[in-house]
Amino acid sequence: MGTDQSVGFSLDALRDRLAYQPLLLGGVALVAGTALTLASNATRAPIAAAEAHDTQMTLAQVLPPGSADNDLLADVLELPGPAAGSTRRIHIARKAGVVTGAVFNVAERGYSGEIRLLMAVDPAGRVLGVRVLKHTETPGLGDKIEIARNPWITSFDGKSLGEPAPAKWAVKKDGGIYDSFAGATITPRAVVKAVKGGLDYFAAHRNEILGVQP
């Protein structure tokens, strides 16, 4: 008799524990989820602020000092991109309300992946500056497109569709004016193509970018 009661008691206790565990796990999950949500909300604003600051600093790198007094992050125009169905964000630089430049991303396939660039163009269609945003080119060779490693990227400053002539928008190996890197011709070739493409895009959308009525 004692044994039967003991067994029954043990089974009842086990059932109670099994019923209790899902409730306990649910409570723990709820507390953990609430904590993560609160942490996410607490860090969202500082992260967004840091990202905005980084973007602002990057935009400033391709513009001459003092060439803009507006909020480049807010003064944005969205136009059709070069690919079908795509869009391109154009940051408009202004000084005393007058447009002084347009800043936008361009990209081309390099040796080992896409090379993304940020370039600025003045209202006359001249390059104000170009910087590399992202690439996966070979360290020690293709990474010379980075301003921190080589000043080569500044060779585009002041250039336009008419200077040099269209046929000269190439690396010297292809009959153009731009230097290439020993053992890494594909990388600078892609950058030259991307910048030239950016100038072509600006020329095609100049009136829209500058707010000029055709």
TrEMBL record:
* Residue stretches in coiled coil: none
Give the EC class as a word: translocase
Membrane topology field: Single-pass membrane protein
Signal peptide segment: none
Q: What is its main location?
A: membrane
Cofactor or coenzyme needed: FMN
Sorted alphabetically, the Gene Ontology BP terms of this entry are: electron transport chain
> Residue limits of the FMN-binding domain?
110-202
Q: Which GO terms describe its cellular component?
A: plasma membrane
Q: Give GO MF terms, alphabetically.
A: electron transfer activity; FMN binding
FMN phosphoryl threonine PTM positions read 185
Known EC number: 7.-.-.-
Q: Where in the cell is it found?
A: Cell inner membrane
Per UniProt, the keywords (alphabetical) are: Cell inner membrane, Cell membrane, Electron transport, Flavoprotein, FMN, Membrane, Phosphoprotein, Translocase, Transmembrane, Transmembrane helix, Transport
Protein's UniProt keywords contain Flavoprotein: yes
Residues annotated as transmembrane: 20-39
- What does the protein in this record do? Part of a membrane-bound complex that couples electron transfer with translocation of ions across the membrane.
Family to which this protein belongs: Belongs to the RnfG family.
Its quaternary organisation is: The complex is composed of six subunits: RnfA, RnfB, RnfC, RnfD, RnfE and RnfG.
Q: What is this protein called?
A: Ion-translocating oxidoreductase complex subunit G
Supply the source organism for this entry: Aromatoleum tolulyticum
What lineage is this protein's organism placed in?
A: Bacteria, Pseudomonadati, Pseudomonadota, Betaproteobacteria, Rhodocyclales
